[in-house]
From TrEMBL:
Gene3D superfamilies: SET domain. Residues 58-198 form the SET domain. Pfam families: SET (PF00856). It comes from the Eukaryota. Residues 37-56 are annotated as: Disordered. This is SET domain-containing protein. InterPro entries: SET_dom (IPR001214), SET_dom_sf (IPR046341).
Length: 217
């Protein structure tokens, strides 16, 4: 299968990161620099065999939102096709890599990969399943996100990408703080994968007269 089920017919499906015209040699050097062992800010690595970088990704499926109370009712969302463990990389978020000069303030799919290096990824006009991730706000029974965005070095393409990760998996204090246990998290098969777009996103939407809820996918 060359494209995932329910992929828009008019939208190019990416199987690797796409470089915009303004991506410079400096950007490329940064993107293709493998994280060094022992670096306190080390970016996690996804091996070339990881299902998170398969295209289409077997861990997820694009589904129509049929719940009338859902902010994105009548649109689409991204759902887990299998159980996903806490802290696990779900998939890479693919799109067009670009610098600040070509950042579109109107795009709902534009994410910073690294602000200091001035490189972002926009999945508005082309991308993969990652672009269908909705925000958790306004969804009945969802008080917080079950996934988050975070960078990952993908060995399949030999570069740093934005990843979609399941939340949880870390340790937290229990009781008097002396005992530790694994924090809850993970995503069950069939559950919608939800992130937080951030307060800044919704503030801009409110300025434009938008509502606090799912985006038009």
């Amino acid at each position: 299968m060359s494209k995932p089920k329910n992929w828009p017919a008019t939208l190019p499906y990416l199987k690797a990161p796409l470089y915009g015209k303004d991506i410079s040699a400096t950007h490329i050097q940064f993107l293709r620099t493998r994280p060094q062992d022992g670096d306190i800010d080390q970016v996690p690595t996804a091996p070339a065999s990881s299902p998170a970088t398969e295209t289409p990704c077997p861990r997820v499926k694009i589904q129509a939102i049929t719940d009338r109370s859902h902010p994105a009712y009548g649109q689409f969302g991204l759902f887990a096709a299998q159980n996903i463990a806490p802290g696990e990389l779900i998939l890479a978020y693919l799109g067009r890599l670009h610098g600040r000069a070509t950042t579109s303030e109107e795009s709902d799919y534009d994410l910073w990969l690294d602000r200091e290096m001035d490189v972002a990824v926009d999945a508005a006009r082309e991308g993969n399943e990652g672009r269908f991730v909705n925000d958790y706000r306004g969804i009945e029974g969802k008080e917080r996100a079950n996934a988050r965005f975070g960078n990952v070095f993908c060995e399949k393409w030999g570069e740093v990408c934005v990843g979609v990760w399941a939340v949880g998996g870390g340790s937290k204090a229990k009781g008097d703080g002396k005992k530790k246990k694994k924090s809850e998290g993970g995503i069950k098969k069939g559950e919608e994968i939800l992130v937080s777009y951030g307060k800044g996103f919704w503030e801009e939407r409110r300025k434009d007269g938008g509502d606090d809820g799912g985006e038009d996918q």
